[in-house]
Amino acid sequence: MKIRNAAINDLAAITAAEAECFPKAEAAGEQSFAERLSVYPDHFWLLEDEGRIVAFVNGMTTDLPDLTDKMYENAQMHQPDGKWQMIFGVDTIPSCRKKGYAAMLIKQAIADAKAQGREGLVLTCKEKLLAYYAKFGFVQEGVSQSVHGGAVWYQMRLRFEQA
User: Fold this and answer.
1) DSSP 139-153
2) Beta bridge partners of 5
3) Residue 110: what are its φ and ψ, rounded to 5°?
4) 3-state SS, residue 20
5) Is the pTM of the predicted complex or chain greater than 0.85?
């Protein structure tokens, strides 16, 4: 198993994985991923097993405190020195779930955000995943303003201790 940042040549594999992991209304498409990879590839963490992508986490950084639907489609909103690491997706190929792969990537994203001096991370998730993300220190902030894919999303935040 190897964690690495994504590159544009990972586009097809990332898009295919996303289509396996999310309903069509919620899944990002190839064009969206191409834009994200061209603007913030260092905020795309991939987990490979013998060269095959089995899981990934992606998002951008911004000074805006809340994750909004506009961020998913507008990669130009990325601020390289942003205070917050947004997490847009935590994807694990269905046949590879329940093995701790997503946790490995979430921990890597947290460690990288901390090392980069961010204030913390923000994500949205469905109600059934609130307890899962709480295990990493994320705190639920209530129902998000997001209407992405027609689902109900909850915003969660992991805030780093300020020295």
Assistant:
1) EEEEE-S--GGG---
2) 45
3) -65, -45
4) helix
5) yes
3-state secondary structure of 27: coil
Torsion of Cα atoms, 138 then 143 then 57 then 157, to 10°: -30
Q: Helical H runs in the chain?
A: 11-21, 30-39, 69-73, 101-115, 130-134
Residues 6+ apart with CB under 8 A from 103: 136
User: Are 22 and 94 within 8 A, CB to CB?
Assistant: no
3-state helix, strand, coil in the chain (%, to 5): 40, 25, 35
Spatial CB neighbours of 17, under 8 Å, sequence gap ≥ 6: 53, 55, 56, 91, 93
Q: How far is CA 46 from CA 33, 139, 144, 148, in A?
A: 13, 25, 26, 23
Q: Please, are residues 149 and 26 in contact by the beta-carbon 8 Å criterion?
A: yes
Residue 163 has pLDDT above 70, yes or no: no
Q: What is the pLDDT of residues 86-133, one digit of tens each?
A: 999 999 999 999 999 999 999 999 999 999 999 999 999 999 999 999
